[in-house]
Amino acid sequence: MITIIYYYSFLISSYIGGLLIALGIDDYYMIKRMDHEEYRIIGFILLTLLMILFPLTQLVVGRILGFNSEIEFDRYLHEPVRTSVDKNRRLFRLAFGALTAISVLAVAYTMLKTSTVPLFELLKGNTSELAKMRIDASRGISGIDVYIRNIFAIALTPVLSIIAFIYTTQSRALYWKIVFFLLFMSSLVITTYDLAKSPVFFYVIMLLLAGVFTQTLKLNWKKISAFVISGTVLLVIMYVAIQGVTEVESFLSYNSGPIGRIILAQISPFFLHLDTYSHSIALLEMKGLPSFIAGIFDIEQVRTARMVMENVFPENVDKGTGGVLNTIFIGEAFGSFGYVGVIVCIIYVAAVVQLLYIAFLRLPKTPVVIALTVYFTINIPRTLVGGAADFFFNPIWIMMTVVLAGLFILEQYFHVIWTFLMSKVKRKKVKA
Q1: CA 58 – CA 80 distance, rounded (Å)
Q2: Which residue ranges traverse the bilayer (predicted)?
Q3: pLDDT digits (tens, 9 = 90+) for 125-166
Q4: Is the per-residue pLDDT at 432 higher than 60?
């Protein structure tokens, strides 16, 4: 988790592009919309502060808790997987089967409620308005349908498939093979239906991590190279099919195509946040907090990334192709509370991430816990380049933790708890 955060979220997705922007050699369309050039340097200084203060905070938290990451991770990696206790197996399978049915139905429901599914339109050859269809697919669902899609389809389905995958590799039972197949296919659909390129890649990485954590996959440079080459080829195919990019220069250029998407597209909005909330829009303060927290103070939440999009690219908003300009989490922190918010948020998020990492390595190594660990290992780095509010209150993370905690109890301790409760009931009857 820590390695992915530092090298993916910070170094590759943020710092390299930030350096190009600071040097003035980015030649990127977003940065050309920035009105005040001094924020090139200010932004890079803040990114450098992030690169130093974030791991320093984690080191301090680890030292306070007596945590040695190298020793504890190595112990966790080589610890055998504890599958469901025999006495709990039937009930656990029933509960897991019910959740599987809910997830698969949620995926189907999402497809039905999406007026135009971009994936299906692409397969039919309708590519003229894919950009608008992608925006409509992500923002065209409202009300309770959003929770059904985000929690039970997008979040829960891939995680359940990880659990089924681990049980399949550990037991080889037909039940788990069938369940894994259903969940795997549903996960592929929900991670590609809106033609977003990253979700399906991250889902594959989740499967690979599950294989590594359970020792069913031994990585070496040959396998890693094969995965990287396969991923690159798939990414090129997706760019050609979805965005119609065919020029070789577009793929090799550092400020366009896949490379530009990785090193500049994610970090450029951070500089726009600095520029916008320093001159065009007042700091949001409490309005920038999660809706649940803002609601306590009777304040309507406002997303900093949406405000920046409306301010910098109003023409895209008018055309219906402008969503939000998400970026590294300190961008949202700045939009809400300025420079003080950036420093406080770095320390807070780093401490939260380190505490979660320590907790996962010290929990029992069961398929459910491994799946939860893999889920956060992938989603925390993705959230770091999406905003800060989710680290204060994230209903999807809370719901996922509650559901998987229930599965964990059924998996390991239900029979013990049930026996204890029944013994208490019998004692009360005897006394009566």
Answers
A1: 28
A2: 5-25, 41-65, 91-112, 147-167, 174-193, 199-217, 224-242, 337-360, 367-384, 396-421
A3: 776 677 677 777 777 677 788 889 999 999 999 999 999 999
A4: no
Residue 7: CB atoms within 10 A of its CB come to 13
pLDDT for 428 beyond 70: no
Distance CA 269, CA 247 (A): 26
Q: In the prediction, which pLDDT does 292 show?
A: 81
pTM confidence score:
0.88
- Residues 6 or more apart whose Cβ sits within 8 Å of residue 77: 212, 213, 215
Average pLDDT over the chain reads 88
Contact between residue 267 and residue 13 where contact means Cβ atoms under 8 Å apart? yes
**Is residue 154 classed exposed, middle or buried when 0-12, 13-18 and 19+ CB atoms within 10 A define those classes?**
buried
Rounded CA separation 341/332 (Å): 9
Dist. CA 53–CA 346, nearest whole Å: 7
- Measured from the Cβ of residue 13, the count of other Cβ atoms closer than 10 Å reads 24
Cβ partners under 8 Å of residue 213, min gap 6: 76, 77, 365, 370, 373, 374
> Please, which residues have CB within 8 angstroms of residue 263's CB and are 6 or more apart in sequence?
12, 13, 16, 17, 20, 254
